[in-house]
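Q: What would this chain look like folded?
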Amino acid sequence: MQCAECGGNLEKKIIIYNQPWGEGKLYQFENVPALVCSQCGAIYLESKVSQTIDKIIQSRQKPIRYKRVPIYSLEKPLV
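A: My prediction, written as C-alpha cells:
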C-alpha cells in the first residue's frame, strides 16, 4: 500500500498514538496497530482501531497509568 500524503510505502507497526479530544484533552494509547509511512511518517488506523479508541474515551475507562508532562509555549520570543 502507498501513502495518500506522499506516495511512500506503508508499513505495519505497533505504535504509541496520541488522540486529542474536546478542549485541551489528550489521550495516549500504547500498542496500537497502525500503518505508518516509511517516507513521511503519516499514520493510518483501521476503522476498527479508531472505533475502539473512541469507545474507550467515551466510556471513560480507567487508564493503566497517568503521565505528567511539562507544557511549553513558543508564543513568546525565546530567551
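The domain at 1-79 is CATH 3.10.20.860 (Ubiquitin-like (UB roll)).
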